[in-house]
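Complex 209.
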Amino acid sequence: MCDRRSWEPWDEPGIAKKIDAYWMRDKEVLHRKKIAEDVRDKLGLNVPILEMGCGSGRVAQELFEIGVTDVASYTGGDNGKAMLALARVRLPNAKLCELDVLNLGQGMVAQNVLCVHVIQHLPYYKKAIEGLLGVATESLYVVAWFGLRDEIVADDDRWWGAGKPCYENLYNLDTFVRFGLSQPCVYRADITPLSGKVWSVCFRKRTDG
Ligand SMILES: C[S@@+](CC[C@H](N)C(=O)[O-])C[C@H]1O[C@@H](n2cnc3c(N)ncnc32)[C@H](O)[C@@H]1O
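Predicted structure with S-adenosylmethionine bound:
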């Protein structure tokens, strides 16, 4: 069970469906296709993936489509029950479970961890990145909004009509990358601009112990 926090609107009535419908617009579809291609360029094909904050399964759908991973090698985690319910419809045979990026269990391991458009909605990222890098044995691929300085923006309760605020942060890219590189076994960060304020950062970990 994951506790709900005051700044998590994802399970409020109707929100998950509304946002999923938005993600099906052309621009958002193309965006997630681009992310999937970027993951392919960085990780290759037929790789095992744990996606944290998988939402309604839109990124996974695109990853499956181009062969980056498949239903047998993919696990999706999210702490939003409504999002997971939509993912179960979109990806009927995939392993999907309730997981909290800010409270990852001890002993969880995954070769490649993905976290797309999640940390920008948290009030801070260090705890999540530490946890995700603790789980990843080879790579952590993150997509978020980045800029020249940290802009912590708590959007008010009109956010998507959820009646609850949500963070819509921009993080300083340089500070973020330095933080990841300071974590145990991380030796490299591959940084790619995707569009506007959206960047991907793929942290690589040494696997030679
Ligand atoms: C903007 S959506 C992105 C969904 C998906 N990654 C995509 O790009 O299509 C953010 C997702 O992160 C999830 N999320 C937010 N906080 C989380 C947390 N602490 N642990 C796990 N998932 C979280 C939300 O439930 C939501 O599904």
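The first strand starts at residue 49 and ends at 52.
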